[in-house]
Amino acid sequence: MTDQKSSLNTPGQSETLQTVLDAIPSPIFLIDNMAQVELANRCAKSRRGVLDAYTHRERMGNILGCINALSCSDGCGGTRNCEDCPIRKAVADAIDGNSIFRDRVLFQLLVDGKYVPIHMWLTASLLKYDGRNFVALILEDVAEFIETTALIPVCKSCGKAGEGVEPKKSIEAFINERFASDCKHGLCAECAKQATDRKSKGA
User: Fold this and answer.
1) Phi, psi of 126 (to 5 degrees)
2) pLDDT tens readout for residues 119-135
3) Homologous superfamily of domain range 7-142
4) What is the spatial distance between Cα 45 and Cα 83, in angstroms, rounded to a whole number?
5) Which end of the chain is more exposed for a tag (fewer CB within 10 A), N or C?
6) Angle at 104 between CA 25 and CA 83, to 5 degrees
7) CA 33 – CA 82 distance, rounded (Å)
């Protein structure tokens, strides 16, 4: 963390930029080359702990609850694993002029006291403002996207997924390719009971 005052927090200077960011319906952060958050939009601020961390120009790993950031006293950027951080790599690429659009990344984040793997789409693009280089960073939770988007098209005859695409794929393959998620197979309670009943009757 740094004590440097952000030029984007000067009263009146960033009101238009903040209004534009707030209109974006995904969590978006404006960060510097040290992965410190300069501005965050309304959607990002509605997430757990983000508003307080943003106010103090906290680094992204500390805001997200990254397992690496929380495993050392220096926080985000303080471990050797931080060198492979997809956010830091995306920031460097964006500053070099190579925008990133919806790269699928996996984070180990602290959620409700437990570290859980979370798949996200990461978008990063260079944004020049007030003579400084910033990176506009968008993080989209793949699971949330699946929950809030349209239904998956499934053929009622063959049971495969896809619309206007040949060849069609199994539901599992479609979800894995489109959303970077895997299906977990098992029996529901009712089917498990029926299977047990059949087994006991056949014994």
Assistant:
1) -70, 135
2) 888 999 999 887 889 99
3) PAS domain (3.30.450.20)
4) 26
5) C
6) 110
7) 14
